[in-house]
């Protein structure tokens, strides 16, 4: 019997959390996951303000209480004073995975020079991978296309459920069994 993977999508935005701005990032992540994943999964979606303790609290809740194997955040990764998503991610993770941020910045720099200002990162909390994405839907897709091939295997390695992808759209990397 297949296990349903719980995936958290966390939008970090003062304006969206107050209802002043429509969240476009969270729905873009949901649509992307629907497009590439073939294994059963359920979405846990939340919008929080740019507040480091609240972001960390929600990440802990999604990981520890709701058993998310993956949390994808959007927003709060720039240099502005209230952009604190990477710091909240560092607060809750036991292991940081800097390669995710390095690859996302590399891909984004091929499109826009301001990508150098991005601070997205990733880390592991227990059996949950947390990945920080930028806030713009176009950048979200570009970054997910870059890192998603490694995400299913990373989740395998930390003891999470097996995620499968539509291979014609995105092939997940897994080493060949010997």
Give a structural overview.
There is one protein chain. The chain has a single domain (5-157), classed as Molybdenum Cofactor Biosythetic Enzyme, Chain A (3-Layer(aba) Sandwich), CATH 3.40.980.10. It starts with a strand and ends in a 21-residue tail after the last helix. A six-stranded mixed β-sheet has the order 2-1-3-6-5-4, sandwiched between helices. The longest helix is centred in the first third of the chain and has 14 residues, at 52-65. Helix 2 (25-36) packs parallel to helix 6 (137-147), helix 3 (52-65) packs across helix 4 and helix 5 (98-109) packs across helix 6. It has 178 residues and is of the alpha/beta class. The chain has seven helices and six strands, in the order E-H-H-E-H-E-H-E-H-E-E-H-H. The chain is globular.
What brief labels describe this structure?
single chain; alpha/beta; six-stranded mixed beta sheet; 7 helices
Structural class: alpha/beta
How would you characterize the largest beta sheet?
A: 6 strands, mixed
Shape: globular
In total, the number of domains comes to 1
**Helix-strand topology string:** EHHEHEHEHEEHH
The CATH topology, please? Molybdenum Cofactor Biosythetic Enzyme, Chain A
Which spans have pLDDT < 50 for at least 5 consecutive residues?
Answer: none
Number of strands: 6
For this structure, what is the CATH homologous superfamily?
Answer: MoaB/Mog-like domain
Strand percentage, roughly?
15-25%
The percentage helix is 25-40%
End-to-end C-alpha gap: 25 Å
Q: In which order are the strands of the major sheet placed?
A: 2-1-3-6-5-4
Rounded to the nearest angstrom, the radius of gyration is 15 Å
Helical region count? 7
Give the integer mean of the pLDDT values.
Answer: 96
Task: Say what oligomer this is.
Answer: single chain
């Amino acid at each position: 019997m297949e296990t349903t993977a719980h995936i958290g999508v966390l939008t970090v935005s003062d304006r969206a959390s107050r209802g002043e701005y429509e969240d476009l990032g969270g729905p873009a992540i949901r649509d992307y996951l629907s497009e590439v994943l073939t294994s059963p999964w359920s979405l846990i979606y939340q919008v929080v303000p740019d507040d480091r303790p609240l972001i960390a609290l929600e990440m802990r809740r999604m990981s520890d209480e709701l058993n998310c194997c993956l949390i994808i955040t959007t927003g709060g990764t720039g240099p502005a004073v209230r952009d604190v998503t990477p710091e909240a991610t560092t607060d809750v993770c036991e292991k940081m995975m800097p390669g995710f941020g390095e690859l996302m910045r590399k891909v984004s720099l091929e499109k826009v020079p301001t990508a150098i200002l991005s601070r997205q990162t990733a880390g592991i909390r227990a059996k949950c991978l947390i990945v920080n994405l930028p806030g713009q839907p176009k950048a979200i897709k570009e970054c997910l296309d870059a890192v998603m091939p490694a995400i299913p295997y990373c989740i395998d390695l930390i003891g999470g459920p097996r995620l499968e992808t539509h291979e014609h759209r995105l092939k997940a990397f897994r080493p060949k069994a010997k």
